[in-house]
Amino acid sequence: MNKQPLAITVNGHERQIFVAPYYSLLDTLRDELRLTGTKKGCDEGDCGACTVILDGKPVTSCLVLAMSAQGSDVTTVEGLATPDALHPVQQAFIERGGLQCGYCTPGLIMAAVGLLQDNPRPSAEEVKFAIGGNLCRCTGYTKVVEAILLAADRMASQC
Amino acid sequence: MATFKVLEQNNPRVDAWEKVTGRATYAGDVYLPGMLMCKTLGSSRSHARIVSIDTSRAQALPGVRAVITGVDFPEIRFGSGALKDRYIMARDKVYYIGEPVAAVAAEDEITAEEALALIDVQYEDLEPVVDPLTALRAGSPSVHPDLESYEGYGFTIEGGNICTLLDADRGDVEQAFQDADHVFEDTFRSQGINQGFLEPMACVANVEANGRLTVWASTQGPYQVRAQLASVLDMPLSNIKVIPMELGGGFGAKLRLAFEAFPSLLSMKTGSPVKLINNREEVFTQNGPRHPVTNYLKTGVNKDGTIVSREAYTIFDVGAYLGAGPNSGIGHGLGAYDIPNFRLRSYAAYTNKVYVGSYRASGVADMTFAVESHMDMIAHNLGMDPLDFRLKNAIKEGDTAVNGSRVPRNGLFECLAAVKERLGLPRELPEGHGVGIALCEWRSGTGPSTASISVNEDGTVSLLTGSVDISGSDTSLASIAAESLGIAMDQVIVARRDTDLAPFTGPSGGSRIVYSQGKAVELAAEDARNKLLALAADRLGVPQDALACADGSVYVQDNPPQSLTLGQLAAMSVTSRSGPIVGNASLSTLPYAPVFSAQAAEVQVDRDTGQVKLTRYVQCQDVGVAINPMAVEGQLEGGAVQGIGRALTEDMQFDPETGAVRNPSFASYLMPLALDLPELETLLVRVPSEDGPFGARAVAEPPGFGPPAAIANAIYDAVGVRIRELPLSGERVLAALRGEGNDVAYIGDELQELKRAEGLAV
Questions:
Q1: Looking at chain B from residue 123 to 152, which residues have their Cβ under 8 Å from any Cβ of chain A?
Q2: DSSP assignment, residue A32?
Q3: A158 falls in which pLDDT band (50, 70, 90)?
Q4: Is B641 on the interface with A (CB under 8 A)?
Q5: How far is A21 from chain B (nearest CA, A)?
């Protein structure tokens, strides 16, 4: 199938690319833009490893057709850190041991970033709800929840 | 507790930065110029002769570069152990639904998928056998009629579909049963389980200009993949380089050759790099999961609660091929108890289902569910407190373990005491609530391990091992090197390895990395330290034993300012007579070091629906020394959650007629999510092992063993029903509350047949 033009802003950069009409946003990020930090765990919307922020909301990018994101703004895990510093959520995951194999980590981090945009002071239950679509097989979630709460604390105290 | 500078600290993982920024590179993240995409065609039949395969229409599809079938591979059977029972791609027969029969390389994935639909396979159906108990019966269809002619077949019981037996015996079991005051018999069933790793199997293969094959793999065992790949491609092992990429979970499923041979052969045929990534359905249907297991236990007990004998029989379904090998769960048929007389048997039966894979101490979680449920049932029957009954029979230092080893000092009793104290046991709970415990045992894994440490001119050290990082093992190995050499964690560089570069080592699995590979790192660091001390002694003009190594320097103990930094020594070593400083170590096995874990669950059971709500989970494990407490807790929490999934929701369902996997997705195979779980309470006991690095023991496996039995025991405590089959679903609990169902298949006839075949009295 012929590729079609797509204008999309990814991590602050405006991109003009051509993608096949059946391509998901996930496959576009990975195959066309080589932003491989966003992971494919199931391609069915069940695992959350492909979570990105699309126009301000966390979404599973495997369930978004790339062409439907025409003109949209996307943030992936590669777009969080500045050259000088990690995002507070990334920093907290490191300090609290919120990662093991790392494959679900980008999706969890993006789900957490999405949560903290809307709810800067979440309870532990709200954190668990926000990551309720993210499977992690290594950590048992305890340290993930701790990390997100730590990041929330730090971000709120900076405001 | 000894004082450490690096160990027992919550140092961040060495790979944390890469992983939180999305920079960590997994096999699926490898993109090469001109790379083709591979897809495989799975068999639509459970048991059939392949009459013909026509690939001409697929070959003719624009964008398709090559199509292969089983006959394109050398006619060589391979296996995980001695028994060679499997072709890498079906040749003349298919043995399960999903078994690869053809593979395509095309310019993109969608073209490869289109091509699969154009491949015409003609089958002649054979009668399948799906249930392992049926497979054992005389007259059952035979999965491998020519089994006895296969290389490595060494089994002596004829008939049925039995491919292996594991056995262990001690004492006079029959006499002990006759003499015992009570004899208890129970049968337990556990369900099919998927390892649930988040990263699907992935691989890129490329034939290099010099004719060598490079394979970027998602694997726990690069050297094992290299050897098996060499075998199925019939090429010299030294022509293959396996690069283990970041591993997105494996839990045993990635210990062996998976599909790496397909892109490899397609790369050889096309001259282009070829990538294969499984989709989630393929992970469920083509990669070895765990099949349902039946465990039968018989225990002789005296009036005072002393266990005198145990008989355990496991009927283990291996699916179409021996895959992960015989079921090691039977070796845990005694549990953590000292039982003088025993007979343990595990029979592995072939069926027409996907072959079995490994998963986090394969078979032991099934056996622990059986043993620890059985222990509770006996205790209640004898009117004893379940915890006291366990304490009375628990194995102690100096006893003889099931494997014949002397039991060394360990923390079993401390673990039980810690859980008892945390929960305030024995404890009365409100109606509908219950508490249950489980005692789990495992051993620290051994096997070939190597390490090499070079000291750099800036005082850092480079650590090279062949081990793939699983759950932070690189961080643990770097911590051990840093502690040994008296340097900071950030002074250790963990080298990226491949099979050309690093010396041979066993796979990353079976709780062996910290204990055995860590020991190799400790010994390599000692070797490097001795060389540093010798050089410093020479340059400082003092005897070697007057020197110490700490804080990045070697110094004279009586006069610390008289010192040389590691960087200075490394620079001097380059032109010294003894040469640059490299510490090496190589070892094969280490002595038996058991690991014990006590676990407890509190539940609330809804009598109207049977729903079980897990309200609290406590575990305490003897870790010897916590190399990194945060990482150890992370392992224990993650393991327990896998066990909670096994206890309550996870259930791979197989069609009883065809053996097809009925629920091959995360939407229908239910792994725990954050909201499903109570707070996990994780306690550590530290009784150092005699031989592990700095006294460390294995950590990874036992946390997942306890939840099924602990929760089943808690359900009994709450509402008085005993569930002998996993998962402990609301449906099963409700049926039991209504006095219906809850029957585990009767296997008495099969047991009698097996015993007769072995010449035992029945």
A1: none
A2: I
A3: confident
A4: yes
A5: 12
Kindly state whether residues A10 and A70 are assigned to the same domain.
Answer: yes
Does A132 contact B639 at a Cβ distance shorter than 8 Å?
no
Instruction: Give the gap in angstroms from C-alpha B300 to the nearest C-alpha of chain A.
Output: 38
- Answer for the pair B474, B497: CB distance below 8 angstroms, yes or no: no
| DSSP state for residue B140 in the 8-state scheme | P
Taking CB atoms and an 8 Å limit, are A137 and B13 in contact across chains?
Answer: no
Q: What is the CATH number of the domain that holds A64?
A: 3.10.20.30
- Give the pLDDT mean for B632-637: 97
Q: What is the mean pLDDT of residues B156-173?
A: 83
CB contact under 8 A, B638 and A137: yes
pLDDT at site B225: 97
Q: In the Cβ-directed half-sphere of B492, how many Cα atoms lie within 13 Å?
A: 29
Q: Please, which residues have CB within 8 angstroms of residue B351's CB and are 6 or more apart in sequence?
A: B129, B130, B131, B132, B135, B143, B161, B291, B317, B318, B319, B320, B659
Q: Which of residues 243-262 of B touch A (CB under 8 A)?
A: 246-249, 251
CATH number of the domain where residue A141 is located: 1.10.150.120
- B427-451: string of b/e by CB count within 10 Å (b at 16+)? eeeeeebbbbbbbbbbbbbbbbbbb
**Amino acid letter, B71:** V
Write out pLDDT tens, residues B525-569. Answer: 999 999 999 999 999 999 999 999 999 999 999 999 999 999 999
Examine the domain organization and report whether A116 and A67 are in the same domain: no
pLDDT of res. B158: 60
Domains held by chain A: number: 2
Mapping DSSP onto H, E and C, the string for B161-225 reads CEEEEEEEEECCHHHHHHHCCEEEEEEEEECEECCCCCCCCEEEEEECCCCCEEEEECCCCHHHH
Q: At B562, which helix (H) or strand (E)?
A: strand B559-565
Could you state, in order of their start, the residue ranges of all structural domains in chain B?
A: 36-126+201-277, 293-444+591-737, 446-587
B-contacting residues in A 41-70 (Cβ below 8 Å): 41-44, 46-47, 49
- End-to-end CA distance of chain B: give it in Å, rounded: 53
What architecture is the B446-587 domain classified under in CATH?
Answer: 2-Layer Sandwich (3.30)
- Residue A40 at interface with chain B, using a CB cutoff of 8 Å: yes
Packing angle of the helix pair A105-118, A142-158 (nearest 10 deg): 40
Q: Does the pTM exceed 0.95?
A: yes
Separation CA B588–CA B517 (nearest Å):
10
Residue A70 and residue A29 share a domain:
yes
Q: B293-444+591-737 has which CATH code?
A: 3.30.365.10
Please give the Cα distance from B128 to B132 (Å, whole number). 11
Identify whether the C-beta of residue B343 lies closer than 8 Å to the C-beta of residue B169: yes
Q: Domain end: A79, A111, A127, which one? A: A79
Chosen domain end from A47, A79, A111 = A79
Q: Which of B397, B533, B418, B552 is nearest to B489 (CA)?
A: B552
Mutate to test the interface with B, among A2, A24, A138, A139 (most CBs of B within 10 A): A138
CB-side exposure of B500: number of CA atoms within 13 Å? Answer: 11
β-bridge partners, B317: B349
Selecting from A49, A90, A131 the residue whose C-beta is nearest the C-beta of B20 gives A90
CATH superfamily, region B36-126+201-277: Aldehyde oxidase/xanthine dehydrogenase, a/b hammerhead (3.90.1170.50)
